[in-house]
Amino acid sequence: MKNTAQKSLLCLAILLFNFTAHARSQRMTLRPVDNMQIERFMGPWYIISHIPTLFEKNTYNGIESYELQEDGQIDVTFTFRRGSFDGTERTIRPKAFLKEGAKSSEWDIQLLWPFWSDYQILDLDVDYQWTVVGVPNKKYAWIMARKPHMDPRLHSKLVLKLKDSGFNTKKLRMHPQKWD
Questions:
Q1: Does residue 170 fall inside a structural domain?
Q2: Domain that holds residue 96
Q3: Is residue 88 part of a domain?
Q4: For 24-54, how does the pLDDT look when each residue is reduced to its tens digit (9 = 90+)?
Q5: What CA–CA distance (Å, rounded) separates 114 from 90?
Q6: How far apart are CA 145 and CA 63, in angstroms?
Q7: Residue 90: per-residue pLDDT
Q8: β-strand 89-92 against 106-112: which pairing, if any?
Q9: Are 64 and 47 a contacting pair, CB within 8 Å?
Q10: What is the block-wise mean pLDDT of the chain (180 residues), using blocks of 10 residues?
């Protein structure tokens, strides 16, 4: 009887291990997207939510715009209001480059000289209407769209993808957008 109980527990443990391993493999782990058409990605993106960097905290109406230059540099313009919808409009202009020898969804970005950071487009709508961007150490992430608002069900799905990929989504902040 003791042998039968041990065998049953062992079988149960194996089944549970296989089930959790299968469930984990069914999760969507985000990696830089393949076959991104860089020209289609260019233009304005409204920030819907983000795990903010230090200078993004307490920002409103954030729009990040990208413009590809002939030399491969990507001009980035981050426009936002500080503190409220009526706050002072500010603009930050980081530099970005496609990572040498990498996919078009992997960039180097310089927010402050001389510091560079990796920037990865992790998920992208086939029609380029929304995107998920993150950094490899998973400290920062952005969910952005071509319009200032996103369907809540889609947003929840994208947040779950971030969480399943190891981002701390408890730090995710809805980025307030209000346009007249």
A1: yes
A2: 38-174
A3: yes
A4: 334 456 788 998 999 999 999 999 999 998 8
A5: 22
A6: 9
A7: 96
A8: unpaired
A9: yes
A10: 49 38 45 92 98 91 96 93 96 90 86 82 97 94 97 97 95 93
Q: Which helix (H) or strand (E) holds 132?
A: strand 130-134
Asked whether 146 and 45 are in contact (CB, 8 A), the reply is yes
Run of H or E residues at 77: strand 73-82
Per the structure, how many domains does the chain have? 1
| pLDDT score, position 4 | 57
- At which residue do the structure tokens 């929840």 appear? 156
Q: Are 56 and 62 in contact (CB under 8 A)?
A: yes
Q: Which two tokens mark 77?
A: 């313009």
Residue 137: which CATH number? 2.40.128.20
Q: Residue 8: inside a domain, yes or no?
A: no
| Sequence-distant (≥ 6) Cβ neighbours of residue 76 within 8 angstroms | 64, 65, 66, 93, 94, 95, 96, 109
Do the domain assignments include residue 141? yes
State pTM to two decimals.
0.82
- Residue 88 tokens read as 């002072």
Show the tokens assigned to 43: 């233009």
8 A C-beta contact, residue 132 and residue 120: no
Residue where the block lists tokens 């902040």? 173
